[in-house]
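Here is one record:
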Amino acid sequence: MRCVIARFPFDLTKSGVLESMKGVKPEQVTGESVIIGRRTYPVKQVGQVITRQDRRDFSAGEVLRAMTQLGFTCRGGLPRTVVPTRVLSPLQKAAAMLGHPVTA
């Protein structure tokens, strides 16, 4: 598949990426990641290995797009913490509006 990363065209194949990443130890993932084989790599590390360019020359989005098109599983940044919201009954809402403490 032909893709453009950092304004340079690359002909990438899934087997070529697998071969390039063979023996490369994954760095700690702190943002977007790509699962290649059984390992999870940071997107920028994958981009650096397959393009042989400095990480500052390309965006994570360019590499994510290419890896997704090749069929690799890509994950976004760190999962955001979801704060569960408490659902109050109409009686509890009325009590809260009157200044009384809401009980569970």
In short: The mean pLDDT is 87. Helices lie at 14-21, 43-51, 60-70, 90-97. The two ends are 57 Å apart (CA to CA).
